[in-house]
Amino acid sequence: MASDKQVTFVIVGGGIAGVTCAEQIASQCPSDEVYLLTASPLVKTVTNFKQVSKTLEEFDVEEQPSSVLEEKYPNLKVVQSAVKLLQAKEHYLQAENGQTFHYKKLCICSGARPKLLTQENPHVLGIRDTDSAQEFQKRLSKAKRIVVIGNGGIALELVYEVEGCEVIWAIKDKAIGNTFFDAGAAQFLIPSLEADKKDRSLPCKRSRYTTDKTAAGHSGASGELGSALGPDWHEGIELRGAVQNSSGIHIEYECEVEKIYTQQEFLESKLSTKKSELGVWPAYVQLTNGKIYGCDFVVSATGVVPNTDPFLSGNNFELAEDHGLKVDDHMRTSEQDVYAAGDVCTAGWEPSALWQQMRLWTQARQMGWYAARCMAADVLEEPIELDFCFELFSHITKFFNYKVVLLGKFNAQGLGQDHELLVRCTKGQEYVKVVLTGGRMVGAVLIGDTDLEETFENLILNQMDLSRYGEELLNPNIDIEDYFD
Ligand code: FAD
Description:
globular; binds flavin-adenine dinucleotide; five-stranded parallel beta sheet; flavoprotein; FAD/NAD-binding_dom; FAD; alpha/beta; NAD(P)-bd_dom_sf; Rubredoxin_C; single chain; seven-stranded mixed beta sheet
């Protein structure tokens, strides 16, 4: 017989946003019962959290059994079952295992899934969670050529890591890594793609997460609901194709996928191409620039779609253009007492001039943590201000084995022509770019061990007028820290 629970707080999702939210609310409200409902068998916990500077943070992520959380917080219960129904007006939630809940406050942290080029095409793969990464590895081990579509972080890492397989990388922009970089930074990184693996720079320290291989084999109830992977998702997974020696990367710029054919469809098509010249492949990709490539399979890394499906029917959620649950500056959705955090939500407040939402690991943690504080404050009818972490966009990551720090409007987002760029580049070593508007620094890209992050973060936060320094700002012979101390 299904039980009907009356609970103060219910959190949905065992990714970084949900787990951080559940932990925070459980510790802030020790006398209230907290339920964490998740479709995946393991939960993601943040460990070794380190505040690198005012806004930059680093942490490790570990996939752990849910018992770890329950042992740590006596008032926190984890239920491994996907939510299948929400009646927001009634504050009622139903899980696939039949359990039902009446909550006071609910926080949806159900993440996002890859936006696939086409659904249900066996030759198209998306990479999202441990299961899909393992499927990718399996298919890659037999592949001689793959086509990668997309230009975000996942595509960047993927094309860099794959060995022993030819990679055709189709991007719609003029330069690689458009989500994170401008053409200059892309130029700086290209030689790393072309270098032999053994010649590549040594890895630098970066967050990593571990997966429990025994448990990772079981996916969530629907088989598609695992947590998103994160930095170093390819660590411990050998991404090697079927060709003995490295087979190189070929980039097709400014194009998209026109059509993907199965072998049969291709042979039967009326395409004017000399079909025999393209060889025999399981799939063929026709690009908008007219080129056609045969391949073993296609990796679709073209962004994500928020996982909102089970929550929408019968409710009145306001959705953003990207289909995320729109949240206000208290992480509240448009349905009363329903909050959302992480990849599933879209920030609907008027953002600070130096912050933008990006569906990243760090923001999932920050939003989960802040949503919990907002829920607690709202229950206690206490005021709460938008957290300082939303003042300045900041992100530390690693691309092509270089440390990468992104600050503020690092790509001059939303600035139109109204900005100036200063760039310093030492081939194979570092790339530094600052974005200035009205003589004030509003963003920076730091690739390599530049050691400039804290100083630049301060200059961005204090909005000091830097006009009189001009290009001296990036003069490598000047110790910039002394300059401004
Ligand atoms: P998720 O981690 O996706 O967690 C969602 C949770 O909700 C899961 O536990 C899922 O099981 C559960 N769930 C879903 N639906 C339901 C339901 N109906 N009922 C119950 N539970 C449900 N970010 C970075 O910052 N740096 C990187 O280098 C980086 N690399 C990435 C590489 C890959 C391959 C991918 C896929 C993502 C990467 N990201 C990276 C993005 C980062 O992983 C995500 O932004 C972050 O994990 C989002 O966390 P989340 O908690 O919002 O969602």
